[in-house]
Amino acid sequence: MSNKTSTIECFYFKSVKVSISNLSSAVDITLDYININNCLYICVTDVNNLVNSYRRFKKLKLSINNSLLSLPDGRPLSIFGRLLSFKEIDRVAGPDYFNNMLERSNTEKITHCFIGDTEETLNRLVKKIKAEYPNVTIKGIYSPPFRNWSIDDNNEIVSNINKFNADVIWISFGGGKQEIWMNENCNNINRGIMVGIGAGFKWYLGDIKRAPLILQKLSLEWCYRLYQDPIRIKNYITSIPLFIKDSAILLILHYLKIKRIKAKGEIKE
Predict the structure, then answer these.
(1) Which of 87, 88, 90, 79 is nearest to 250 (CA)?
(2) Residue 179: which of 76, 79, 49, 26 has the closest Cα?
(3) Between residues 269 and 13, the one the model is more confident about
(4) Pick from 187, 185, 61, 50: which is nearest to 115 by CA?
(5) 10-13 vs 16-19, strand pairing mode
(6) DSSP class per residue in 7-73
(7) 217 pLDDT exceeds 90?
(8) Which terminal Cβ of the chain has fewer Cβ within 10 Å, N or C?
(9) Cβ–Cβ under 8 Å, residues 185 and 160
């Protein structure tokens, strides 16, 4: 871990933050900020969450924009960033980020706790992590009740996180819900970096299979996910066409702006 914090750059897609990061820099930045004496959080932002945040849910947009990092989870977001000339950006898939954080923690003194999903899933998760990364320190697990949480339920989640006092707090409440929860509860948590990992525990356990590498590189992992979970079609048929349309408009406006600036001689070829 570095003794000084990294500089974090970002751009905004329809007023929603996307961090200019790649897998390596995302892990480095996370570890750099662990020793800050308060709680921060990281969003793993896919196209569906991005579109929902600027089209439908102001709370979600606010939550993403208040995060330490809004990682570009999805090839389309990283491609868009590169078309804006951000050469350092690359896809940061949640499962890859999770694995790399555990790998680094196996050689560095980084502690973890896991919040969300079922107790059975959490126990299997801990067993597998201990087998694959024996030097990783796990401070605790907590499975919140599966219902609309009361104030007492919410306080119990916060209390457990503070009791565990881990460096990295993995939150698996589902996309959208976890981002808003982290933003609303961050000030009640003493320290650590919360990461909204969605279905990351199930990815790691193999309950959800990753798409073949060729589909990942072709930005078609969503097709494979849809094959596994057809109920997601409602999200995809809405968010993907909107993202393509809005991306095209934003890129045209971006290149027209550059062309006008060049015409004025403010940018040299």
Answers:
(1) 79
(2) 49
(3) 13
(4) 185
(5) antiparallel
(6) P--EEEETTEEEE---HHHHHHHHHHTTTSSSEEEEEEE-HHHHHHHHHT-HHHHHHHHTSSEEEE-
(7) no
(8) C
(9) no
Identity of the residue numbered 129: I
**Per-residue pLDDT reduced to its tens digit, 76-99:** 899 999 999 999 999 999 999 999
Residues 6 or more apart from 200 whose CB is under 8 A from it?
44, 94, 95, 98, 170, 172
pTM of the model: 0.90
pLDDT score recorded for residue 261: 77
Instruction: Mark residue 187 as left, alpha or beta (left: phi above 0; alpha: psi -120 to 50; beta: remaining).
Output: alpha
Query: What's the token pair of residue 46?
Result: 């896919």
Burial class (CB in 10 A: 0-12, 13-18, 19+), 264: exposed
One-letter identity of residue 158: V
Residue with tokens 């650590």: 192
- What is the pLDDT at residue 227? 65
